[in-house]
Amino acid sequence: MPPSGITDAAAKGVKLERYASGGALLLRRAASGKLVSASSHLLFRATVLATLALVFLFTLHYPSLLSRSFHLSSSASTSTSLASSSAQHSHRSLLMSSSPSTSAAGTYSGAKWEEQIRRSARPARDGGISVLVTGAAGFVGTHCSLALKARGDGVLGLDNFNAYYDPALKRARQALLASRGVLILDADINDALLLAKLFDVAAFTHVLHLAAQAGVRYAMEAPQTYVASNVAGLVSVFEAAAKHADPQPAIVWASSSSVYGLNTDAPFSEDHRTDRPASLYAATKKAGEAIAHAYNHIYGLSLTGLRFFTVYGPWGRPDMAYFSFASAIVAGEPITLFADARRDFTFIDDVVRGCLGALDTAGRSTGSARTGKKTGPAPLRVYNLGNTSPVPVTRMVAILEKLLGKKANKRVVTMPSNGDVPFTHANVSHAAHDFGYRPTTSLEAGLRHFVDWFVDYYKLDVKIATANAKPTDNKTAKKKKKMSASS
């Protein structure tokens, strides 16, 4: 057995060795900790810098980040230049910010500009109304603005000229309206600052709100644009009218026959259920009707919703079936028809009369932008505006073939589940009772007016078939000449 001294020395040596080993370990851990700490600091700083850079880029490019490029494939170009340029147009963002940096209110300003606004919005006849028309460069908006101005009412238009379809057609409509003394501002309905400014500058008695993202099938490709325009945009207009206009205007706005969705009871009545939309487009329009109920109840806005049924005619939308079919027939392109599809085609003149009738019979709003209180209930109305005569789409194509003197290359398919419905059929008894709405234009007569305009606008070398109008068409040669002049 070794002496105790040797044992103590050995024990001390083991302890020293352990201390040394532990110290080395601590040093290594400390060094490693510092390295990790340094790395963490560097990573944190890099993350902060990257975040700031992204925020800067987002702020700098905000409109372009929110916008979506719209491009519809058109028929092949013909020697008549029927198709527009194939270049893809950038769609202005529908989610406009109300901040001063993105609002058009800064661009539209000054005493001269305000006088232009007042001049366009000022009625030219005793008892005339002053109307702010949104979507004024659109199909229905253009015709309504022309009709209002022609009878001596004041009209100011608003349109964002997006490229859902060829903006050149919208600019041509704008030029037509300008020649009649109607000013259209290039701006968006989600621009809250500009809307508030317009209500400050001009005392609008009415708003005809027609701006919307149209098209049933396109909603499957760009759903956010429908929410931004048809829901957020509607709220934007209601907000401005309720809280900035003094006095509050009466508002007539475009709903749609699409709200009837999967309803099979015919003809469609305003009393039928509308809780089964077949498309997102239909859902946004139904949402709009619910929103209108809330703003009528809370703010006392006088609101009238108009459910349009397949409107057609001169200056129409190229994405609509009758327009695209005519383009395809002339260009020799094939067309796709849905089997057994029927539509209540309604001529634009009849729809315009319905819109003006709704404006003329709209009651006053009862709210106050100054006090935030209302003096009583305000009118809340919904009407169908249709032709009351569903027609097979194949019949519509046959009429176009006859007028254009050329057979269509037809391809008939089963209707897909893309938002379309088998048929539409309007009951217009409520509109007939309340403001005398009675459609008078047959599909044959209406399509002839469209083809007359279509051939002239695109400068087509097409000899239109001789008219074979019936007396019941209620479209005499004199009326046709008047229509051509107005178009």
Automatic annotation (TrEMBL):
Task: Please give the GO cellular component terms listed in this UniProt entry.
Answer: Golgi cisterna membrane
A single GO molecular function term of this UniProt record: UDP-glucuronate 4-epimerase activity
Q: Which Pfam families match?
A: Epimerase
Fetch the Gene3D superfamilies from UniProt.
Answer: NAD(P)-binding Rossmann-like Domain
Name where it's found: Golgi apparatus, Golgi stack membrane
Q: Quick one: where is this thing mainly located?
A: Golgi
Which EC number(s) does the record attach to this protein? 5.1.3.6
Q: Does the keyword Transmembrane helix apply?
A: yes
Residue ranges annotated as transmembrane are 42-62
Q: Which InterPro entries match?
A: Epimerase_deHydtase, NAD(P)-bd_dom_sf
UniProt keyword Transmembrane helix present: yes
**Domain (NAD-dependent epimerase/dehydratase): residue spans on this chain:** 131-361
Going by the entry's taxonomy, the superkingdom of the source organism is recorded as Eukaryota
* Topological category with respect to the lipid bilayer: Multi-pass membrane protein
**Reactions accelerated catalytically:** UDP-alpha-D-glucuronate = UDP-alpha-D-galacturonate
Which keywords label this protein?
A: Isomerase, Membrane, NAD, Transmembrane, Transmembrane helix
Q: Which family does it belong to?
A: Belongs to the NAD(P)-dependent epimerase/dehydratase family.
Q: Quote the protein name from its UniProt record.
A: UDP-glucuronate 4-epimerase
Q: What is the gene name?
A: ga15352
